[in-house]
Input
Amino acid sequence: MVPLRMTQTQREKTLLPEGGTGFFPYPGGSSYNTALAIGRLGVPVRFLGRISKDFFGEQLIGHLIKNKVGIDLIVRSEEHSTLAFVKLEAGKEPQYVFYTEGTADRSFSQADLPVKLPEETHCILFGSIAMTMEPVATTIESLIFQKRGRAEDGPVISIDPNIRPFMIRDKDAYCKRFEGWVAASTIVKISSADLAFVYPNFDLEASLQRLLNMGPRLVVTTLGPEGAFAALRRDTGIIRANAPVVHSKVVDTIGAGDTFHGALLSWLDLKGKMSRSKLVSLTEGELHEALFFANKAASLVCARQGADPPTLPEVEAL
Output
């Protein structure tokens, strides 16, 4: 699998030592986190993107290597790393401030794409704030559209929009473009908050049906404390499944959705289901198992500071 969220955001977490305020760097970013989750679950994964040569970039590269994420598709550049400051307060959603102008990940261009993806590429994942910035958004989009063919031997394409409304200047334009990405995807992983942003006048069922009608085989939505729900479009109809959350102490929810996405894709790969032809044959029981596996992984990351995905033994032991 090749993650295509090109941002190499340095997540900065506030601490309050004796009444003071401090910021500490944590390597992260949506698809970066997902790549880490996949690597820790023992599934082969590479990161495709543009990463700075500055000391933040060195930290990002080192963290990928440490977590068994391939770096041979990464382009190194002189631009600075993107910075994301995250403010965490008890009982509130995380607040973000991004510094992206002229940064390495945002500058990812057509010239940075490999001539050919590795033969063993079974899945391409992409999404998040990379799809709100240029030229990186158009670069990713062009690759996805190139691979969108519905041939049975083509790679599974999986999107997690992970929408940050404050990064979107023209909502109508973004939503139109979003539907193009959905139509090119095999799997759509989307949160209930993202659905409410894109389709504020639709209920959950109507939103999911609209997405399925665009072409993807599988749509999975995370519902916070209510767990996760999946709808799989087969040639003979639609099957549905859901799975509850696994309750644990919540320390930090950052990276939960990214970890869920990585765990879902990892389960499919570990079970030999990561192909367009095998995906459509999933049973309701298998969908439930996949969702529950992903929920367990997300629960474990919520019990830790930062986007710190669990290993396969940790998930299986929960």
Summary: The first helix runs from residue 30 to 40. The radius of gyration is 18 Å. Residues 2-317 form a domain with the UDP-N-acetylmuramoyl-L-alanine:D-glutamate ligase fold (CATH 3.40.1190.20).
